[in-house]
């Protein structure tokens, strides 16, 4: 499209009119169609229309910001200049910038093409994702309060009255079927941007709980409450990330599903999406069983896993030897091959962990000893039934299980009625506890790595744990208010997309030398505001400009290091 003069000739300056013309190619050659007669318009307006007509389709930046144009001078009544609608801008704008680099909007427009709906589903999905990144809340609160107070009204161009809870819920329904394609797209795009290698896959499981009964959701079950809410139903979320913490995919399981039963499902999912390349799976001890290890070895897969603490007893003599290799201050390792030579066991000993475990043992030892003393005094003062006293002893040991093995307790019946509580400390248990404090055991079928390499690969599992902390803390994945299975899965998908934006910003910070933790960077840029400046003129008209606040010096430094260009003004769209 382009602007064309009409009416008087170019030589005459008066009575010059403009029309907006669209040019298209046909079988009979190029054809021109007049889209609209614009009449006699001011030159700055004509320049803005010309820029809008020539901008490429799909570039959201070109629709929003007015950075160029010739100056236009008017007389303004400075006493009546005022500001209106001060809103947060930086967080939403930064989220859109990151989405643009990930080609997320074009992906959504491809899989959610525009139909007869008033608002594109791709824009509604972006509303959910950006709100989850900036102001995590329920769809109802977004529709009733948060959206109109945000700058997304202008950034996405969706009127406030078009954002309601029903439309947001239907956007969840639309995006869920494209979960697998989205995971593939994001994995490939992140790999291209940062030259990532997906040779090490970190796998972990967490849970998130519901508010409500969730009677129509079969996956909502009571299980191991990682969020310390045993009174609520939950679902389990299994997440696979790279060594940098960038996600490859996730799966949602029933809330009563144990971690060890999810391994085969998640391995087959990842291999179905990305092939069976020679990757190394890293899992904690909750995933380990003999069946799972045989499954991984049977498919030629490599792994580095933690082991249950009970397995450490087999290496008691190795713990006593002095041939430890120090790989950093306070941490020692040693490598021992299995008898068949197909696996290696890595013994690890941490002085910091040892001090922590010793403090825990001492704490529970004192609690048990105090409780037993109190119980024995009670039995001496008053006759007690043996069954009642035994149950009290059992509850005491169960509540302080970390030191329960240190005590051998007997409830002895007295002549004439009543019982006595007699106990002694098992010094063999104490000796083993002191020897094994701070020690843990890993196992792997990667035989061409040394102990340090295997330990460093396993310790990367903290990236998966950090992913869950970000989703539960910064992105507010819990609690889940949806009641149906599909809506719950779509809610988790939106949180997954927001987490991808978060980790993308982390990689940008890492590349810029700002570390790989984007929390402070995001919070700083999110403080940038947008405001409407209202200026009455001598002619009686009122000029309204939507201006973006000048960044502070720290904000300007961050933007420069991240290679982000903050616009100065936004176009006021007629919504």
Beta strand %: 15-25%
Major β-sheet profile: 9 strands, mixed
Span of the ends, CA to CA: 23 Å
Count of helices?
20
General description of the model:
The chain is α+β, with helices and mostly antiparallel strands and 575 residues long. It has 20 helices and 18 strands. It has helices at 43-54, 60-64, 90-101, 104-111, 121-134, 139-149, 152-155, 165-175, 179-194, 263-274, 290-298, 316-320, 351-381, 386-399, 427-436, 451-459, 462-473, 485-511, 519-526, 553-561, and strands at 2-7, 16-26, 29-39, 82-88, 200-209, 234-241, 247-254, 280-283, 302-306, 325-328, 331-337, 344-350, 407-413, 419-425, 439-444, 529-536, 542-548, 569-570. The strands form four sheets. It has a nine-stranded mixed β-sheet. The protein has a four-stranded antiparallel β-sheet with strand order 4-16-17-18. Strands 1-2-3 form a three-stranded antiparallel β-sheet. Helix 3 (90-101) packs across helix 19, helix 5 packs across helix 8 (165-175) and helix 8 crosses helix 18 (485-511). The longest helix has 31 residues, at 351-381.
Brief sketch in words of this structure:
The protein is an alpha+beta fold.
Based on the model shown, name its key terms.
3 domains, 575 residues, alpha+beta
Secondary structure elements and pairings:
Layout lengths: L1 E6 L8 E11 L2 E11 L3 H12 L5 H5 L17 E7 L1 H12 L2 H8 L9 H14 L4 H11 L2 H4 L9 H11 L3 H16 L5 E10 L24 E8 L5 E8 L8 H12 L5 E4 L6 H9 L3 E5 L9 H5 L4 E4 L2 E7 L6 E7 H31 L4 H14 L7 E7 L5 E7 L1 H10 L2 E6 L6 H9 L2 H12 L11 H27 L7 H8 L2 E8 L5 E7 L4 H9 L7 E2 L5
Parallel strand pairs: 5-8, 8-9
Antiparallel strand pairs: 1-2, 2-3, 4-16, 5-6, 6-7, 9-15, 10-11, 11-12, 12-15, 13-14, 16-17, 17-18
